[in-house]
Amino acid sequence: MAAANEGGATARPAISLRGVVKRFGPVTAVDGLDLEVPAGICLGLLGPNGAGKSTTMRMLTAQAIADEGEIEVLGFRLPQESKQARAECGVVPQLDNLDVELSCRQILTVFARLYRVPRDERPAAVARALRIANLSERADTRVDLLSGGMRRRLLIARGLVHQPRVVLLDEPTVGLDPQVRQELWSLIAALRAGGTTVLMSTHYIEEAERLADTVAVMAKGRVVARGRPTDLVREHAGEATHEVYGPPARLEALRAQGEEAGWTMRRSGPALAILHAERHDGALPEGFRRAATLEDAFVVLTGEETE
């Protein structure tokens, strides 16, 4: 449902997908996807590898064309009006496709021109993008001399050089070490705080939990749950999780016991995690109690283990 503004009118969502299907031969990558992203929020598209997240992102940029369904970005129908939509969007791809022979400033200047930033405004636009990405001191450094984290920040700066209304981030921190990931989280959080609409695909649970106002969990090409992270945890994992450690044989015996008793469970490394533990006080085997997390809810919803 589209959100209502203060005057009671229904606001058009920034992004809307209705009944979207995308097939690659015999494989259905996206299967009847319905998703709306209200303007001004950060929505985390969370799912395991193969859930259809990247295919969805590619359809939103018209790099892939849906076989069925309707897609709108900022009111523009895709693929018919994809050029108009792209002019209002910033896109940060999963893979690094920077020209390594150019400097940061040169790359941003090229993209400012491609995004039709007026000539007299381009230097200021480039300086602003460099400042947002904390790359001002590296403005004239060639890309092949930048670290992996700097290159990722440059990708984000490239997507922001024209001050887009919507930013699409496809797995923005994949493959990065934790320190660099934290730097990029700060950058994305600043976009969110500034009122930019952000759609971010990720399979990092903590990333979605920290950055997203709303999370949409994808599995097998469609959204299986949506809500605020805290609400999803409460609904699907409860308030507390009880973890029991032991040898595999004992954990399998406990799993069989739990299935008979109706426990909601998942394997969590060397432990068996029993969800909604607050419902079973006094009836669970000896173990350790902790607060339920979005990862618990995610595994219940998708049936997949996470990294």
Key attributes of the depicted protein:
four-stranded antiparallel β-sheet, 14 strands, 307 residues
Q: What is the third-level CATH name, the topology of the largest domain?
A: Rossmann fold
What proportion of the residues is helical, as a percent range?
25-40%
- Principal-axes geometry comes out as globular
- The number of strands is 14
- Give the H and E element order: EEEHEEHEHHHEHEHEEHEHEEEH
- The largest sheet has its strands arranged as 6-7-8-3-9-10
Low-confidence stretches: 1-9
Strand proportion, as a percent range, falls in 25-35%
Describe this entry's structure for a reader.
- The chain folds into 2 domains: 38-65 and 82-227, Rossmann fold (3-Layer(aba) Sandwich), CATH 3.40.50; 238-291.
- Helices cover 34% and strands 27% of the residues.
- It is built from 10 helices and 14 strands.
- The protein has helices spanning 53-60, 82-87, 104-114, 122-132, 148-160, 178-193, 205-211, 229-236, 248-261, 294-302; strands spanning 15-24, 27-37, 42-46, 68-73, 76-78, 89-92, 166-170, 197-202, 214-219, 222-227, 240-245, 264-268, 271-275, 288-291.
- A hairpin with a 2-residue loop joins strand 4 (68-73) and strand 5.
- The longest helix has 16 residues, at 178-193.
- The radius of gyration is 22 Å and the shape is globular.
